[in-house]
Write a sequence for this structure.
């Protein structure tokens, strides 16, 4: 296999390009510099609103894989089997990560009830809602593009240190970020390996890529709000 032409490499390059273009457009929000504690609190609550749907989305995709009745070819059956296996394992790995964020928020004085009572934005509903559409009405493989995005760019310890200095918040506020800084590089590598192992046809690659790029742009929109 040619490394440069592997699907996972091409997908990662495209996702980096979307994020780099945005960086050039000054992604550091002014509010982060002006009122870092407020910015960070909002950041965590918005992250929660996205993360609380990660396991339910994968459960929906997993159900689709195991209940697929229209599969006709052996290749498609194998694809669904391997995909279902991945979702099953990853559901276990991601279980309760949304709860971690609520704990982090609580540690900086934001009660759980307050975090849960904030209505998520329309853009979050569009980002997550579109995943359900692709899973239920098209193909559960599309969700891989979304996962590739969300786990593809884990927070670095440098970024976490910077946020801690800017906000003045204790270590407890950054537990979820630190854990993902350690976990998500492995999750990203595992997904890359899966993308190389699955019997993907050109159309599958296009669906995954389209969803990854759509989701990347929608996430940038959410982060700018
Ligand atoms: Fe996670
Ligand atoms: Fe993860």
């Amino acid at each position: 296999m040619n490394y440069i032409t592997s699907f996972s490499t091409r997908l990662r390059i495209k996702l980096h390009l979307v994020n780099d273009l945005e960086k050039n457009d000054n992604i550091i929000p002014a509010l982060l510099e002006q009122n870092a504690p407020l910015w960070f609190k909002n950041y965590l609550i918005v992250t929660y609103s996205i993360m609380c749907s990660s396991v339910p989305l994968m459960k929906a995709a997993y159900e689709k894989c195991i209940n697929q009745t229209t599969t006709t070819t052996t290749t498609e059956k194998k694809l669904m089997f391997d995909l279902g296996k991945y979702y099953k394992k990853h559901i276990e790995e991601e279980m309760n990560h949304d709860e971690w964020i609520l704990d982090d928020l609580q540690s900086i004085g934001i009660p759980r009830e307050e975090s849960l009572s904030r209505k998520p934005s329309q853009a979050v509903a569009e980002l997550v809602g579109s995943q359900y559409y692709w899973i239920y009405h098209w193909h559960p493989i599309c969700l891989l593009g979304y996962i590739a995005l969300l786990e593809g760019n884990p927070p670095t310890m440098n970024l976490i240190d910077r946020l801690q200095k800017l906000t003045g918040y204790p270590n407890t506020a950054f537990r979820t970020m630190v854990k993902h800084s350690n976990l998500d590089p492995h999750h990203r590598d595992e997904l890359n390996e899966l993308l190389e192992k699955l019997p993907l046809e050109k159309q599958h690659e296009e669906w995954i890529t389209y969803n990854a790029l759509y989701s990347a742009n929608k996430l940038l929109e959410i982060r700018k709000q």
